[in-house]
Write a structure and sequence with these properties.
There is one protein chain. By secondary structure, this protein is α+β, with helices and mostly antiparallel strands. The longest helix has 17 residues, at 117-133. The radius of gyration is 21 Å and the shape is elongated. Helices cover 37% and strands 20% of the residues. Helix 3 (117-133) packs antiparallel against helix 4 (141-155). The chain binds zinc ion.
């Protein structure tokens, strides 16, 4: 099955200056065109693209931007706008996929565990890529839950057990014990 690479694991190639700014502002092509994007630090509206890179597989464009006011730098990513499948709950109701929900339950499971925010973000990125790669218009919430469990298992075994014990409704204590044995606690 096709395995996609998260943002953090990609190889990025620097684009030559001539290809850096494909959209010239006011008809001018300049090496450091101004783009309207609000600075996340001070709210200033003009930021300059100081570097553009393309991922090796050409699926993403990454731009380093610098604020014209506070001069802080930040990164933006461009990727095709594809929509997530609807999530179908056990009772048959459909909801929109919400990153905040996934992030919330993962953060809860990982509470006080030695896992960084960057690692959690990368895991969510993985889940989302897998979700998109399914190529389906709707996905059962249980399947999404399995994707979350898979990532938690890689990140932290305690968090995995926490999540799984809440998420899975255990038939009996043996099933829970099997799960604990499985992760080698
Ligand atoms: Zn700023």
């Amino acid at each position: 099955m096709f395995q996609s690479t998260p943002l953090s694991g990609r190889i990025w190639k620097r684009l030559p200056l001539s290809q850096m700014n494909s959209i010239p502002l006011k008809g001018k092509v300049s090496n450091r065109s101004l783009f309207l994007m609000k600075c996340p630090f001070c709210g200033h509206l003009e930021t300059q693209v100081v570097e553009t890179r393309i991922s090796e597989d050409a699926e993403f464009i990454r731009r380093r931007r610098q604020c014209g006011a506070c001069e802080k730098r930040f990164t933006t990513y461009e990727r095709p706008d594809v929509s997530f499948p609807s999530i179908v709950k056990k009772d048959g109701r459909r909801t929109d996929y919400q990153r905040s929900k996934i992030l919330g339950s993962m953060t809860l499971a990982l509470r006080k565990r030695p896992v960084s925010t960057a690692q959690i973000d990368a895991a969510v990125e993985q889940i989302e890529e897998k979700l998109l790669n399914l190529g389906l218009r709707e996905v059962a919430s249980s399947r999404l839950g399995e994707l979350v469990m898979l990532e938690l298992k890689k990140l932290d075994k305690i968090a995995y057990i926490r999540f799984a014990s809440v998420y899975r409704s255990f038939e009996d204590i043996d099933e829970f014990r099997m799960l604990v044995d499985e992760v080698g606690r």
